[in-house]
Amino acid sequence: MDVLFTGGPMFGADAVLDRVCPDRPVFLMNRDHHAAWVNSRALDLAGIDARTPDPPDGRIDGGAVLNR
Q1: Which of 13, 14, 35, 67 could form a disulfide with 30 if both were Cys (CB 3.0 to 4.6 A apart)?
Q2: pTM of the entire structure?
Q3: CA–CA separation, 61 vs 50, rounded Å?
């Protein structure tokens, strides 16, 4: 799992976080503070879904979590 949080590939991070903590929101900031990983519960509470537009000068790359 270290590769998920050290700047390597992020594929599957959403599934890992949902499996580890499905009922509570999780927000993990990247070490350079330019990215973060969240689970489905955090996205639900923030009102973010597949229809949410990217923020100005940013990107929501939700992978499987947003495509559920």
Answers
A1: 35
A2: 0.72
A3: 10
